[in-house]
Records
---
Amino acid sequence: MTKNPFSAIDLQRIIYLGGMMGVQPVVPFDFKELEIVARKRLSKEAFAYVAGGAGLESTMDANRRAFDQWQIMPRMLRDVSNRDISIELFGQRLPSPFLTCPIGVLELVHPEADIAVAKACASLGIPMIFSNQASVKMEDCAGVMGDSPHWFQLYWSKSNELVQSLIQRAEKCGCSAIVVTLDTTMLGWQTRDLDSAYLPFLRGMGIAQYLSDPVFMRLLDEPQEAALTIKPKINLTTIRNLITTVNKYPGRGFFKKLRSGKPMAAVRQFINIYSRPSLTWEDLSFLREQTKLPILLKGILHPDDARKALDKGMDGIIVSNHGGRQVDGAIGAFGALSSIVEAVNDAIPVLLDSGIRSGADTFKALALGAKAVCIGRPYVYGLAIAGQAGVEAVLKNFMADFELTMGLTGCKNINEISKELLTKAV
Ligand SMILES: Cc1cc2nc3c(=O)[nH]c(=O)nc-3n(C[C@H](O)[C@H](O)[C@H](O)COP(=O)(O)O)c2cc1C
């Protein structure tokens, strides 16, 4: 698994030779085109959920602009006939500097959801970060990944017992790191979803990790905190949504489940406990005691927070603004990278997500000190277009594009990528 399973040049050849036989790639290479094609496959609500950001979506723009502020300065005549894009992360050799971001509610995009992503990642040796809001429970995804690396992303809920249970399950199903997402103590003001009054969790979607958790299910039998409820108007939409919710709940017998009231109670309980806005740095010691696995903090944008992560014994950082879905008007994630790399001073790996759209973005991130990058929306669009094959295509394209960018800039491997190969945009 240490070597890139294919070369960029082979991929180019296959594509261009295919063209000679009239075969056109199904999954577009350009991100904007990818989004356009994916949009046609998705419901209005699903597309809005994936593509949207918070407020005016200016953080999404900032994510892209940050990359434009640096340019690559290619070097010549350096024998780049052999190119190795593999990296080492937490003692593990990985075939490329790519991981997939944890993305919730993938059932909105494709019926195979997380399973399709897990299979695609495993076929390329790319680590998949299982989302806390996945549509398929982590054990099932791990089951199709074999030895291929997978991590678990945690949302810290109000119940420490639930946190403990999720971490134990992640360890049991072979996750090799825990990612704690810090930027979602509350849902951001996501204007597109608000416009269509659409939150998939209320329909029982994206809560598979909870419905498969013994602690969560046990808590269902305990008295629940009252949630804001509005007496539902019974119409066709209410009935359709109720059916979806009941069908998502584990077990057989639709009417039995409906009468038990449990499916609706599970959704209510999820809403009540899924996040804990009161979290502070002090809480991290609890997590540190729960596992020996590396813990990464996702959502760090300020160098002081990076220093605090170090003080708290954390093992890695993912610089991220959640793809612009949480704070509108925030710094572009790539713009925050340098100061965090400097603050951490090589003590722990720094990864980056939010706005990675090409091999060049990846090259720039690595040149400024990221050890790896996580791909988000692009693979979700690949999933929408062609399921597992679509995710595979997107991931392969990233690997090939990056390999060529690296080679054409005069680097044979990741170690040769450095800040000296970048300049501030002119
Ligand atoms: C539809 C969607 C769902 C997401 N769900 C999660 C999640 O469950 N957990 C999490 O930590 N981040 C989640 N994220 C954020 C991603 O992990 C990542 O930070 C973001 O997608 C990066 O931005 P980009 O996709 O624009 O590159 C989600 C992002 C999107 C677009």
---
Amino acid sequence: MPLRHSNRRVLGVALSVCVACSALVTTATVLLRPVQQANRLLEKQRHVLAVAGLLEPGKSVEELSRRLDVRLVDLASGGFVELERPERFDERRAARNPALSIALPPERDIAGIKRRAKYARVYLVRNGAGDIETIVLPVHGSGLWSQLYGFLALEADANTVVGLSFYEYAETPGLGGELDNPEWKALWPGKQVYDEEGRPAIRLVRGPVKAWDPQARHQVDALSGATLTTRGIENLLRFWLGPDGFGPFLARIRDGEEDGPHDS
Ligand SMILES: Cc1cc2nc3c(=O)[nH]c(=O)nc-3n(C[C@H](O)[C@H](O)[C@H](O)COP(=O)(O)O)c2cc1C
């Protein structure tokens, strides 16, 4: 009898501990969610500022982010869209929602992403007069082992590269992971992503790129020993610069809608 009594007690105590712990974890998750979201946003903004060359020692990300004009673009038309709560738009979640995304047939899906959201966030850096100085575009696509997420920054001509940087990937360190090597990233500024006809022209070639080659302005050294990651990077860039990506938006900028395109 005493044994059964003590068993019930042990069970009761264990159950109470479980309930208390799960309540604690749930409360912490709910309370910390806004903090985590804010930190994620700050981290993303830090990457945007870094690829645009705007990070300055001694200045906070919040302060520097005031130079960013964050807009949503309708990728099909290339025009800006106004959503009620634009800050709540989540590209990755939207890409899984059939109402907010399109399925890409295999022949057009060169980035290996299957679906893409109808809208995408762009970050415009403006000068004091309000003119666009730099355009930062989110890009993503399949590498060898992982989806590669990054930002491509272009000058106001919507053609010349300011920088390319990946902030999320799981390629092999020393091979595909060299996509984050500062020396490789330094090869990008000044490259031109479109040819004279406005077609995506950027290529990753077995290096080093020959300076005398007329195509050199469109070429960057491949990552050595990482042909498959390299191909993924080239393909995702060509996708996001093409007609299913930011092509229509960038064409509008190049056509002189300097303030950025507007849909009526
Ligand atoms: C353990 C392991 C990890 C690898 N990781 C990568 C990688 O992250 N990216 C990549 O392109 N190739 C990676 N490779 C190499 C590919 O399998 C392939 O050999 C390589 O892309 C060919 O590149 P190369 O023609 O420049 O030598 C890896 C190979 C091994 C054995």
---
Amino acid sequence: MMQPTIRDYCADDLQRIQAITISGFDGVSIAQNIHNQLGPVGGHDWTWHKARAIEDDVEHPQAAVFVAEIDHQVVGVITTRVDLESGIGLIPNLAVDASVQGQGLGRKLLQHALAHFRACGLTTAHIETLDQNPIGQHLYPAVGFREVARQIHYAQDLTAGNASE
Ligand SMILES: CC(C)(COP(=O)(O)OP(=O)(O)OC[C@H]1O[C@@H](n2cnc3c(N)ncnc32)[C@H](O)[C@@H]1OP(=O)(O)O)[C@@H](O)C(=O)NCCC(=O)NCCS
């Protein structure tokens, strides 16, 4: 593999990072779980919701987003939020193109984000992964995260008249 480089996100990257995120999150996405159980939400399939989440990530006022490139091709992305007041750096999304997974790029993107958090003076980094995502559960402790909580997500279809009153 050619040496990857990591740089700041720019607006031209949006469609590419949405595509990488959507294909990467197939099988490890809350939006997809909801779609699988309740059907399309608001008339949109889960990939639309994932693309929107990435748009929210890049437009967020505290956003710091980085992409990994190999041979001038974007092959990975990490989205973050830098909250100087709370001291917390949040990582909402991380994805690496399937063609180059398992070669250390995810770890590099995480380390880049963590270095950015430190350079900003943040004191804590926060990331989540799903119970159904073994790679996240391996990778995050490997770069220094410790498990602090488990959460259960619920969703309810408000249109089918099946909500209990
Ligand atoms: C998570 C993701 C970004 C990691 O990117 P990557 O470039 O493959 O990551 P790395 O190569 O740096 O590290 C992957 C690690 O997971 C390990 N791994 C791979 N498959 C695994 C599995 N099924 N179970 C446990 N660990 C696994 C690899 O061995 C490697 O660990 P090592 O360096 O100790 O050997 C990438 O797999 C991805 O895009 N996944 C889909 C989206 C996703 O899950 N994002 C994170 C959501 S929380």
---
Amino acid sequence: MTTTSRTNTCDRCDRKTEHTVRIEVRTESQKEENIKFSREPYRVSTCSECGTKQVQRMNNA
Ligand SMILES: [Zn+2]
């Protein structure tokens, strides 16, 4: 698993903070609502200040 560190804007801190970023590919859905997101790569970035996670899909097309 690749983990990188980068500076992102945190909505909760309302400023730029250091984030831990890792890529996840979810191969199984946890809820019915997530089925459309299954098997797609996500970028999960966690604020090192407040711990808030921001999840973004990699392919925004
Ligand atoms: Zn934060």
